[in-house]
Amino acid sequence: MVKVAVIEDDQPTSQQLCGWIAAARPGIQIDTWFTRDDAEAALARERYDLVVLDIELGRERNAGVAIINAINKRHAGTPVLVVSAMPAAIYRSIMKALDAWDYLQKTTFDEADFVETFLDILRATKDKAPPAPVAAPREELLLDPLRQGAAIWRGQRVNLPLTAQRILSALYQRRGEVVSYEDLYQVVKSGRNRDNIRKHVSTIRDAFRDIDPTFDGIANVPMRGFRWE
């Protein structure tokens, strides 16, 4: 069972986030913590698949920073989604330096934005299946970014809209490297923001999984962008 911790001192906000998570992924285990001490004690006992975290808890303005440091020390790699009223222009770079996966500023996002981000992180960090005894060749993708729907994966056509096709091409041309959000903005004509890029990448993943359920060739790089592996 997927286990998620919601660390938020405002109970109405905590209940709202838990409700969104439960609706998006029925059956998920959600633990709620309201103080730094309780959260750190819980994190010392068990490992969560994802932590949703506020920065300011009670009178501790940067309690969330301490909790992220504790997570990195005990359970390196656990994804953290920061949801805070602190200005994103200042704190996004701080959270990036701490290896948080993403940052949402309160009052600037709605349920759809939160759920999209939450599910994208879960998909990107799910346990990978053991490798097959014989590795598939890496040069198994053929595409023409100028022709809509022209991507071919392992001999089968991948149905993609043109913008998703261009993003796929940008990732594949630089496979093994991180392609930043800013770089990906250059290949879209409108919607040049992180949420829109994430939606296009989600569309690409879904299209590949329609023909190859084991596909996991696009990695989400926290706060930076994506990488074709």
Automatic annotation (TrEMBL):
Where is the chain membrane-spanning?
Answer: none
Ordered alphabetically, the record's keywords are: DNA-binding, Phosphoprotein
Domain Response regulatory intervals: 3-121
What PROSITE patterns would the database entry show?
RESPONSE_REGULATORY
Signal peptide start-end: none
What InterPro entries has UniProt attached to this entry? CheY-like_superfamily, OmpR/PhoB-type_DNA-bd, Sig_transdc_resp-reg_C-effctor, Sig_transdc_resp-reg_receiver, WalR-like, WH-like_DNA-bd_sf
| Regions annotated as coiled coil | none
* UniProt xrefs under Pfam families: Response_reg, Trans_reg_C
Modification type 4-aspartylphosphate: residues: 54
Q: Per its UniProt record, what PANTHER family does this chain match?
A: REGULATOR OF RPOS, RESPONSE REGULATOR RECEIVER
Q: Per its record, how is this protein called by name? A: Response regulator
